[in-house]
Amino acid sequence: MSVMPSLETLTVHGLGRVAEPYRDIVPPIHLASTFERGEDGGYPGGRMYSRDGSPAYIEVEEVLRQLEGGTQALVFASGHAAASAVLQALQAGDRVVAPRAMYWGLRKWLLDLAEHGYIELAFYDNVDLADLDRQLAAAPTRLLWIETPANPTWEVTDLRAAIALAQKHGAHTLVDSTVATPVLSQPLALGADIVLHSATKYLNGHSDVVAGALITREDSALWQRVRSMRNLGGAVLGPFEAWLLLRGMRTLHLRVRAACANALQLAGALEQHPAVAQVLYPGLPSHPGHAIAAAQMSGGFGGMLSIRVRAGEDAAREVAARVRVFKRATSLGSVESLIEHRASVEGPTSRCPPDLLRLSVGIEPVADLLEDLQQALGV
Ligand SMILES: *Cc1c(COP(=O)(O)O)cnc(C)c1O
Question: Which residues of the chain are in CATH 3.90.1150.10 domains?
Fold first, then answer.
């Protein structure tokens, strides 16, 4: 009888290859930067130099490829480096259409590239497909950028419909799926061309690695340029970070499911809290994107939610100052819960409401998290 292990088992086992000669259960860390040539001048080991693609990436890229259902995956030195490789793979002056609500660091990067003439840039309303259609129709567009749920207000974009519009207008689609994770959403199966992850977040999951990843549906001409941009741009991941990322991913499914369950419970409880004006979480039936999220995410709605504090910005900062279990820090997707007053991090160009607190819900017992938020909000 042949056993076909599930994707989850493959992930738990980190692919499960046993390394010779000691039959290590976990892969050794390949540190070599360079590899020996044969007497004939060839490369009998199939490797030349680690900036081209280190053997340290084999397992982690294969797990990522399988998790997203793609044909190839690449790891990068950060989520930003992964995004940069895609943007550098475009032709100068190519048009990019990006969502109004998106991870602010990459929004800043797109605006900077546009200001300096590297790309043309237009924005669309994350949830307004008619607006997206108009923006795509306005001029030939090379790349549609999608992020769902989108930082830090968690708008949900209808992936199937948005990708169909991009295809109609001849644009490639990139989906930043950092918050959804491959556990909950598989954009490539819906026709997206490239999925981007800040692997710093859920994929690694322990606040101890900065890394990025891209997974492609097809080995397209664009992808081949992206591949060469990692090598030429040089934003390669270190072997130890690749190893840590693989190690972190072994518990990905458990961590994501636990964070989703906690976030859903907290969102429901906070929605009833008198000090909270609004809870932004796609898992709540009151969220305008709930039905679309339910249709395109499976197994949960993610571990990220935001609350708007009724008494305003100063009160929101005071709530953040009073937490005892949540940690005050930026970033997301780790086992420990984090809280952040987002507008003050993003600075003067922020589009984030000043009364908003962003919560990255971890995997602690939910009672500890709820009690902490209740005491911080004041009951
Ligand atoms: C953090 C983040 C990024 C950037 O990734 P880095 O690893 O910090 O470079 C991109 N997109 C989203 C949604 C993020 O949360």
Answer: 253-377
Whether pTM > 0.85 for this model: the answer is yes
What topology does CATH give the domain 7-247? Aspartate Aminotransferase; domain 2 (3.40.640)
> Secondary structure of the chain in the HEC alphabet?
CCCCCCHHHHHHCCCCCCECCCCECCCCCCCCCECCCCCCCCCCCCCCEHHHCCHHHHHHHHHHHHHHCCCEEEEECCHHHHHHHHHHCCCCCCEEEEECCCCHHHHHHHHHHHHCCCCEEEEECCCCHHHHHHHHHHCCCCEEEEECCECCCCECCCHHHHHHHHHHCCCEEEEECCCCHHHHCCHHHHCCCEEEEECCCCCCCCCCCCCEEEEECCCCHHHHHHHHHHHHHCCCCCHHHHHHHHHHHCCHHHHHHHHHHHHHHHHHHHHCCCCEEEEECCCCCCCCCHHHHHHHCCCCCCCEEEEEECCCHHHHHHHHHHCCCCEECCCCCCCCCEEEEHHHHHCCCCCCCCCEEEEECCCCCHHHHHHHHHHHHCC
What residue ranges line ligand 1, CB within 6 angstroms? 78-80, 103, 105-106, 147, 151, 176, 178-179, 198, 200-201, 210, 212, 332
Respond yes or no: is residue 281 known to be catalytic. no
Q: What is the CA(242)–ligand 1 centre distance, in A?
A: 17
Q: In the CATH hierarchy, which top-level class contains the domain 253-377? A: alpha beta
Ligand 1 atom at shortest distance from the alpha carbon of 102: 13
Nearest CA to ligand 1 atom 8: 79
Q: Separation of 201 CA from ligand 1 center, angstroms? A: 7
For residue 332, which atom of ligand 1 is closest to its CA? 15
For 223-252, the pLDDT digits (tens) are 999 999 999 999 999 999 999 999 999 999
Residue 40 annotated in active site:
no
Q: Per residue in 130-177, pLDDT tens?
A: 999 999 999 999 999 999 999 999 999 999 999 999 999 999 999 999
